[in-house]
Amino acid sequence: MRRFDFTVIGSSSGLEVSLNVSDAGWSVAIIEESSFGGTCLNRGCIPPRC
To answer: Where are the domains of the chain?
Structure first.
């Protein structure tokens, strides 16, 4: 089994976190069930319902 130093769940704003951790020399795994980049990047931002 492969091991990672840091795991990010969701590739939306998690991409920035994973880049910073990777630049620090850590190994990073990103878990995303859908399109890489998240909802805002691929389908347009959806405002929260109030």
So the answer is: 6-38
